[in-house]
TrEMBL record, chains A, B:
Role: Serine hydrolase involved in the detoxification of formaldehyde.
Reactions catalysed according to its record: S-formylglutathione + H2O = formate + glutathione + H(+)
Keyword Hydrolase: yes
Family: Belongs to the esterase D family.
GO MF entries: carboxylic ester hydrolase activity; S-formylglutathione hydrolase activity
This enzyme's EC code(s): 3.1.2.12
Protein name: S-formylglutathione hydrolase
Source species: Dyella solisilvae
GO cellular component: cytosol
Enzyme class per UniProt: hydrolase
Gene name, Swiss-Prot/TrEMBL: fghA
Active site residues per record: 150, 226, 259
Keywords, alphabetical: Hydrolase, Serine esterase
A GO BP entry: formaldehyde catabolic process
Entry-linked InterPro entries: AB_hydrolase_fold, Esterase-like, S-formylglutathione_hydrol
């Protein structure tokens, strides 16, 4: 049984905000994640909501900035914030570019060397992490929801669409919805996955939702003053894909909001309630 | 009229989270502060709550970590988070020690060279900043409250006790209450203020509250697992001083909580409501 090392645990809103490290099989080395246990976790297993962060972020980013613990404590939701990639891989080109490599794992299972030996965030989040959590924390893995921001929104949508039944709810903040059609994806996907665009499509929420819908409404919030809106995010493409695929989507556009955690912090409570509803907490 | 430079402004909870820079007369150089305008500020002047941060912090710390904007938006409170000292002073010994100098202004008006020319945070927060805010933002300076954390809790208490009528409400998180009796104060105060302990007493909340009370209940939250509790904070000294001086005090001790912003984030809403009550917002 894989061991988990506790880095820190701190009291927060009546529960415990922890940071943990463990040896990951999927990612071939140490991985870190943050996990918040609400007060209810002291006496019962609780449903879990994953929050996947975006480019440049770590397990600390949403933990510190999203402001999710307050309502999670009220609703009885465990929060899990994984790091966005393996670290200190030593691979040529793994650092120094915020759009690729460490901090930019794009939640794929890389097939191209050298990335394929470490950059397997899809398997890590979908399989290894839930199994680990189920053994070490009072997590009811049968009741899982997933959300994320930007690259992490892409992660949340593709994971939910590719693993039917695993997540009861999915939402996203300013997600990358069509990586095969925008610069961020077109830069990262060939290096992780090779040139075959059929492989890329497995990590493209627009492509996936046309093939099979998610059982439930997908909630997406998007700021209208987001610098990346027109070039990298293009929520209208997902809107259209959902319409074509018959997917229920609640896409909310917010005037004046940008791509930052001030935006996320402003709407996180709505997302927590969206997930709590599906997870039997409301 | 002094100019204010806008560094950034971002939409947050229906209002605007801004960061600003200006030339400070009190501090003899540029100063930065963060200011949150709730939605109500678009149509009316609003009461203001100052949050003074602690050692090592900047104007960003509470802005990012305290989670105060959500309820401030609901209550219609403007939030002001000043930096904790002047920066880039170039003084020998001003950097490199987290307990003294830049990031550790202790909210005093220094009398000793070279500090006396720049480290005048008491006058800055008490006089210069309110006047500036009144001219540039929809702030009702007649309705002001003040709070802070650790060194900033010391700042909040001493400012409120020394300026009767200026603040309608005061609270603190894990404040330094007796700097003349604890290592942090005994290290910093002589360098800023010289060896005369009568001068130090002007910046010691325990000394001040024995002489004159604050008109209203002082709210203090303190974590029982705070590393600095027994050596630097000693809330029991303030409890006793308030009893002697006839000051109404609500000192709450919270089992398991430490000195971090996870602690502050857990109780910030109670403080916002405490101030909103006194500021006519509840």
């Amino acid at each position: 049984m894989a061991a988990i090392e506790t880095i820190t645990e701190q009291r927060c809103h009546g529960g415990v905000q922890g940071f943990y490290r463990h040896e990951s099989e999927s990612c071939g080395g140490p991985m870190r994640f943050a996990l918040y246990q609400p007060p209810q976790a002291a006496r019962e297993v609780c449903p879990v909501l994953y929050f996947l962060a975006g480019l440049t972020c770590t397990e600390e980013t949403a933990t510190i900035k999203a402001g999710a613990q307050r309502l999670a404590a009220e609703l009885g939701l465990i929060l899990v914030m994984p790091d966005t990639s393996p670290r200190q891989t030593g691979f040529d080109g793994a650092t120094g570019d915020w759009e690729f490599g460490e901090g930019a794992g794009f939640y794929v299972d890389a097939t191209e060397a050298p990335w394929s030996s470490r950059f397997r965030m899809h398997s890590y989040v979908a399989s290894e992490l839930p199994a680990l959590l189920g053994r070490h924390f009072p997590v009811d893995v049968e009741r899982s929801g997933i959300t994320g921001h930007s690259m992490g929104g892409h992660g949340a949508l593709t994971l939910a669409l590719r693993h039917p039944g695993q997540y009861r709810s999915v939402s996203a903040f300013a997600p990358i919805v069509a990586p095969t059609h925008v610069p961020w994806g077109q830069k990262a996907l060939p290096r992780y996955l090779g040139e075959d665009k059929a492989t890329w499509a497995e990590y493209d929420a627009c492509e996936l939702v046309r093939r099979r819908t998610f059982d439930g409404t997908i909630l997406i919030d998007q700021g209208e003053s987001d610098t990346f809106l027109a070039t990298q995010l293009k929520p209208e493409l997902f809107d259209q894909a959902c319409a074509e695929g018959g997917q229920s989507l609640l896409l909310r556009r917010h005037a004046g909001y940008d791509h930052s955690y001030y935006f996320i912090n402003s709407f996180i409570d709505d997302h927590l309630r969206h997930h709590a509803q599906a997870l039997g907490r409301l």
